[in-house]
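Quick one, tokens below. Sequence please?
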């Protein structure tokens, strides 16, 4: 397979001007330079746009007039980088994700390992919670989430079904064939929905364990019970709404099956138990979860709650 001719990055941000420079410096410092670095500013009101203009005149800033959520901002970034500028691959980030200096180089080199008859749509780095070393694993989809076998993480490259948007490269061919991420998801599960859509169109999703980035899902912290040790991703109530709503919508309306529906119910019940044991704002989070599940099952999307 020929190496990508042009790779651009897009970073979606909202009111994170104090931490954003660390992310931008990490992208600028890649051992394999990018052809364009793009930041989608989701109508921040903390001086993000001014800071970017003054400190990083070499990057492209797309200033949104309103907060479109992570989903809408990603869609706007892909519209510009892929459909307008025609970059072959678009590398996506949240504003708190820090790629290692050789992450892009490792990903581009791994493309040579893809068989010529495989149609690759997404290439993903491995997100790691830096304080604990915990890996956020890409997942397999078997009408529900399935963790990959541990030995896959020792391979140079392997195939998955679901990867996080932050750290993944999306091909121009994929965007042209299946369209953009769903902006009406606003936040959460929009990347998994995009992956499921890509897989349903015959595209492969590859993971490069040697390419890593620091990433955090929610306000993560280690929690322990007898016989259990895990990383709990504490979320605000408004995010619990979108997580449950978009998952329910995807399974009730896009990938419906009795088995998948049973999985979603079990998954949300377990998550609710985790909120009771480990979460903050327990009642508010549980209330938003129920609202989200109900709206998702009814097919109601769009923006219902904005970030606090």
């Amino acid at each position: 397979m020929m190496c990508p001719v042009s790779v651009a990055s897009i970073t979606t941000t909202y009111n994170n001007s104090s931490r954003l420079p660390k992310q931008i410096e990490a992208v600028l410092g890649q051992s394999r330079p990018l052809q364009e670095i793009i930041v989608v500013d989701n109508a921040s009101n903390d001086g993000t746009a001014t800071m970017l203009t003054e400190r990083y005149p070499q990057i492209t800033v797309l200033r949104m007039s309103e907060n479109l959520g992570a989903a809408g901002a990603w869609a706007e970034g892909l519209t510009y980088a892929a459909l307008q500028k025609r970059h072959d691959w678009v590398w996506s980030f949240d504003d708190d994700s820090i790629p290692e200096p050789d992450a892009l180089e490792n990903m581009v080199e791994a493309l040579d390992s893809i068989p010529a008859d495989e149609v690759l749509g997404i290439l993903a780095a491995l997100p790691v919670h830096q304080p604990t070393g915990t890996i956020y694993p890409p997942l397999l989809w078997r009408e529900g989430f399935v963790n990959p076998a541990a030995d896959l993480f020792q391979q140079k490259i392997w195939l998955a079904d679901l990867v996080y948007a932050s750290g993944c490269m999306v091909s121009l061919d994929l965007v042209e064939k299946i369209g953009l991420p769903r902006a009406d998801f606003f936040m959460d599960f929009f990347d998994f929905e995009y992956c499921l859509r890509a897989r349903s169109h015959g595209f492969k999703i590859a993971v490069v364990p040697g390419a890593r980035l620091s990433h955090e899902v929610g306000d993560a912290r280690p929690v322990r019970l007898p016989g259990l040790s895990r990383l709990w991703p504490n979320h605000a109530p408004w995010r619990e709404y979108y997580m449950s709503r978009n998952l329910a919508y995807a399974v009730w309306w896009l990938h419906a099956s009795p088995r998948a529906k049973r999985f979603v119910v079990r998954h949300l019940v377990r998550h609710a138990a985790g909120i009771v044991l480990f979460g903050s704002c327990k009642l508010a989070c549980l209330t938003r979860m129920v609202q989200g599940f109900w709206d998702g099952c009814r097919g109601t999307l769009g923006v219902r709650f904005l970030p606090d």
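The chain has a mean pLDDT of 94. The CA atoms of residues 251 and 261 lie 6 Å apart.
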